[in-house]
Design goal:
This protein is of the alpha/beta class. The chain is 40% helix and 19% strand. α7 packs across α10. Bound molecules: zinc ion (ZN). The site of zinc ion has 4 residues, from loops. GO terms for molecular function: dipeptidase activity; para-aminobenzoyl-glutamate hydrolase activity.
């Protein structure tokens, strides 16, 4: 317990440096795949503390892999830093009040997430140096979590292979260890190409829109023949026509895209439905005399939960305690709850018991196939109905309550890391649990070999707001 207190004291004395980065990211939000400033600032900080940083890994200019120490065990922390579109919000307002209309904002608290794990990694490193503890600390800078793009490409690039445990977290509306499964997920575009013609002689053309529309119909039919999933994690298959080839009915369109996203029970099912969608695309192209090209934007696995590491997180969450919400935090929380027509409860400060449950899709699920994952939630929003991915969570992430959440997370993750370094039996048990849950299934990337991350994603929007 003495060492745990020393780790927490170090964080208290040194947290201002990460608070400053978190504030900067909040003031300068960058959308998925365009997190150039954010990844640089976080990587620079790690380098300053003696981590070796490899920037631009896995073909992602805004990703990095940082490392300190040597030998086993290898503990990994995670940093996400992308913002969300159109959530700009004045942090001092308790009503909708954009700083810049339609500009991005940190409505998922990634300005905090960007440095929470980093704070833990550095605090743990200090402790390792002081006590001469063996082991390696890694920190992964992972772009585009909001689009689930970063981690599957980093996994395919082999970056997670030597890790023994992942220590991850996310701001939330609750304080708990999230021993959660998630659905697997894919995001894929089918580009239909035909032959353009004048509307008064359409027989000279082959309509790409016909191909895409027929595929939409095929997707509707396919839906009935895939397992529905459960209420907590339902199977969904959605599609849209993002830019229909022609804007004028008197032209046979040469190019049309149909865009599909799916949430599936597990990776196996995602791979199966992806291949059935490919078959639909080919059939629809053949029927309409067009051609089609598949573009997989991303595809992630289901999350493999780990109860053993969940319990380790809960223990340390109870040691550190829920964030010390100030009376101003509570006042703001109640005002926001009122604005959202939610019950004005403020923060409860309750710590939940660790149970297996489901949570929405995230690409952190990729981690969970390589090593047991410890996942912490700390309450940034006072209640579920106070909004998330919303101006309200953006307000909280920029306010002082965000800093309390960030330092709480940093402490809990650092302490969990210390336990893993000093009590090898915990890691052994966690690994045995993962082995049992995986039933011998290897990690196989759901990305086709030729899939590349689209570096132009959000580029035009970001240029407007930088
Ligand atoms: Zn998030």
């Amino acid at each position: 317990m003495e060492t745990k207190k020393t780790i927490c004291d170090w964080i208290d004395e040194n947290k201002d440096e990460v608070f400053a980065i978190s504030d900067y990211l909040w003031e300068h939000p960058e959308l998925s795949m365009q997190e150039y400033e954010a990844s640089q600032k976080v990587a620079d900080l790690l380098e300053k503390y003696g981590f070796l940083v490899n920037r631009g890994v896995a073909g992602l200019p805004t990703a990095f892999a940082a490392e300190y120490g040597s030998g086993k065990p290898v503990l990994a922390f995670s940093s996400e830093y992308d913002a969300l579109p159109a959530l700009s919000q004045n942090k001092d307002s308790v009503v909708r009040d954009p700083v810049i209309d339609m500009a991005p904002g940190h409505g998922c608290g990634h300005n905090l997430m960007a440095v929470g794990g980093v704070l833990a990694a550095i605090a743990l490193q200090r402790c390792m140096i002081e006590q001469g503890l063996a082991g390696t600390i890694k920190v992964f800078g992972t772009p585009a979590e909001e689009l689930c793009i970063g981690k599957p490409f980093m996994a395919r690039g082999g970056l997670f292979e030597e890790v023994d445990a992942f220590l991850d977290w996310h701001p939330s509306h609750r304080n708990r260890a999230a021993a959660c499964d998630t659905n697997a997920y894919f995001n894929v575009k089918y580009h239909f190409s035909g032959v353009s013609a004048h509307g008064n002689a359409p027989w000279n053309g082959r309509s790409s829109l016909d191909g895409a529309m027929l595929m939409g119909h095929a997707v509707e039919m396919l839906r009935e023949h895939i397992e529905p999933g459960s209420k907590d994690s339902p199977t969904t298959l959605n599609y849209a026509f993002p830019d229909v080839g022609n804007s004028f009915p008197n032209v046979v369109p040469a190019n049309t895209v149909i865009w599909c996203v799916g949430r599936m029970k597990n990776a196996e099912m995602a791979a199966d439905v992806l291949s059935r969608l490919d078959a639909c695309a080919k059939g629809c192209a053949q029927a309409t005399g067009t051609t089609v090209k598949e573009e997989v934007i991303t595809a992630t696995h289901d999350m493999i939960p780990n109860l053993c590491l969940g319990q380790l997180i809960e223990e340390n969450l109870r040691y550190v305690g829920a964030p010390a919400y100030s009376s101003e935090d509570q006042e703001d929380a109640k005002k926001i709850q009122k604005a959202m027509n939610a019950k004005e409860t403020g923060y409860s400060g309750k710590i939940e018991h660790t149970v297996l449950s489901s949570q929405p899709v995230t690409d952190s699920s990729e981690y969970s196939w390589f090593a047991p994952i410890a996942f912490l939630n700390v309450a940034l929003a006072p209640s579920e109905d106070a909004g998330w991915h919303s101006w309200t969570s953006c307000k909280f992430a920029g306010s002082s309550v965000g800093k309390r959440v960030l330092e709480t997370a940093g402490k809990i993750l650092a302490l969990a890391g210390y336990d893993l370094l000093t009590k090898p039996e915990i890691l052994q048990e966690a690994k045995a649990e993962l082995k049992e849950r995986l039933c011998g299934k290897p990690y196989q990337s759901l990305l086709p070999e030729n899939a590349k991350p689209d570096l132009t994603t959000n580029k035009a929007v970001m240029e407007r707001f930088r």
